[in-house]
């Protein structure tokens, strides 16, 4: 039975990655933004890619990393609006509180204070806000 399924799929099997979820989540995030930002997709991809360089990020599922990347990208690029809303919650199935630990871990990776030379070369200071207000993680 397994060989029939594998032959039907032409042995093209992969596990879902954050990138798989990001494609859908970015479309939703841009749909709920008044002026869709091209930077949102780039920033989200950058943040998701950052999770690959830290072993501690393996405790989060790919969908949580993708949703957290959207959350943090919206927080950085759209500081005047809440980073999460009911539409994003509906499509991702995550509440802000569900993402809080992963968002904080991604934020630490993004604004790595331990490696300032790398951060200064790769990420402009405007993309490293001082902190994420705790009230952004309350339920909608």
TrEMBL record:
UniProt organism field: Heracleum sosnowskyi
Gene Ontology annotations of biological process type: cell division
Keyword Cell cycle among record annotations: yes
Residue ranges of domain Cyclin-like in the record: 20-108
Cyclin C-terminal domain location: 16-135
Similarity section: Belongs to the cyclin family. Cyclin AB subfamily.
Keywords, in A-Z order: Cell cycle, Cell division, Cyclin
Superkingdom to which the source organism belongs: Eukaryota
Protein name as it appears in the record: B-like cyclin
